[in-house]
Amino acid sequence: MTHLNRRMLAFYGAALVTSLLQAPIAHAQAAWPAAKTITIVVPHAAGGAVDGVARSLAERLSAELKQSVVVDNRPGASGLIGTALVARAEPDGYTLYFNASIHAAAPLLYKSQVKFDPIKDFTPIGMVAQGALIFSVNPQVPAHTVQELTQLLKTNPSKYSFATSGFGSAGHLGIAQFAAEAGLNDKNIPIVLYKGAAPALQDLIGGQVHAMMDPFLSSLPQVKSGKLRAIAQTGSTRSALLPDVPTVKEAGFKDFEFYSWYGIWAPAKLPAPVLKALESATEQAVKSEPFKTKLNGLGFDAVFRNSVDFNKYIVSETAKYQAIIDKAGITIE
After folding, report:
1. What domains can you pick out in the chain, each with its CATH number?
2. So what's the pLDDT on residue 60?
């Protein structure tokens, strides 16, 4: 065999080995999703707003991908435990993460406890929904309007307390923004932390705490049953679900507008083909009539932002939350 033939044989042999090594990788990417369950980790307890929207999305994603998609609740530490779990997960498209705006806010408050970067350690897939909050009080509180509650709090702030399902949650920051705009000293108004909306609402109904801002999904049934009194809602306009309840803006807080928003992520370094497939499936799910109808009935609007736009939105919302935290002087003791 000549030197030329040996070189050619060596060249083609190396090319064959490279081809064989690359084939499984290409096949794995092209075959996603394989016959394997896709798990969406929700870092909050079942029954709350985040869980409700996540399960609605999981149902539609399962239909779009023709694949089993399940929700795994991993609550604790205002969502930090479940979030850190996904940050360390394999970026293979089978472990996803669903959360609300607390994803951007909690790390600003729990700086010493956060073991992940909310931007660098995740691949945003898309924003899927947003919703206003119901500002409600226990019926025994002698306030039927935001103005009346403001006066009560100014007269005797330590007598009344607010509930929150998590420090850094939309409800927590909404209350902080309200207190700042109302000229209240937020540090003198007790804010009680609960592990989820369900126990917070239970104590609010029982009178152990007195007021709360919370998504429609968990608070509306309590308002409709008369167990809570809605004094306002935080959107720019009134919701058709509570047409007789004014917005906080209408109550005289002209700059007040607050929404919780919800999105889905994967661990960082998700392969581009898998991201593209997930982003497309998420968009189709969010824009489907069943999803929009279901969310509207729960007090949410189906709103899709793609991966790039969602990432920009997270950055801008993080800056907004930092400004609220700084102005209110919120610290975690």
Report:
1. 34-129+260-328 (3.40.190.150), 132-233 (3.40.190.10)
2. 97
